[in-house]
Amino acid sequence: MFVDCSGNGSARLLALRGTRCFGRCVFVGEGNRIDFGVSPTLIHPQITLYGSWVTSIGHMEELVEHLVRWKLHPEVMVSHRFALENAAEVHRVAEEAQSGKVCIVVQ
After folding, report:
1. What pLDDT, in 10s, does the model give residues 36-88?
2. What does the DSSP assignment read for 73-94?
3. CA 82 vs CA 46, 67, 102: distances in Å
4. How confident is the model at residue 102 (pLDDT cuts 50, 70, 90)?
5. Within its chain, how far is the Cα of 35 from the centroid?
6. 3-state DSSP call for residue 11?
7. What number of helices (H) and strands (E) belong to the chain?
């Protein structure tokens, strides 16, 4: 299963193309557009595509377990960190879709 949380159209297409035949791909979060040939990308390989605005605590826990097991380090993708007081700036940077992951750091 591939899970994309970037909101970036190119990254989402890459996730779809990396999903195995009869596999599942999940787009979590909002943002951007994606353009692809439906038959060769979804129908012929029989990929199931799920979309979710948010995910559950249980699924987040499962994702974290996979990150550890597969030795993945998503923190290298975080390009901007903001304090909660700068939430408006967080949204502006994220909506531009020209950055890596943007996160709010609560201290």
Report:
1. 999 999 999 999 999 887 777 888 788 888 888 888 787 777 788 888 888 88
2. -GGGGEEEEEEGGGHHHHHHHH
3. 40, 24, 8
4. confident
5. 16
6. helix
7. 4, 5
Structure tokens, 53: 């605005």
> Within 13 Å of residue 93, how many CA atoms lie on the same side as its CB?
16
Strands 101-105 and 48-52: unpaired
Q: Given CA atoms 9, 14, 15, 20 in this order, what sign does their dihedral have? A: positive
The structure's pTM equals 0.56
Domains, the chain, in order of start with CATH, read 2-72 (3.40.50.720), 76-107 (no CATH)
Residue among 64, 51, 47, 42 at smallest CA distance from 1? 47
Instruction: Return d(Cα 101, Cα 96) in angstroms, integer.
Output: 12
The size of the chain, in residues, is 107
Q: Is 51 helix (H, G, I), strand (E, B) or coil?
A: strand
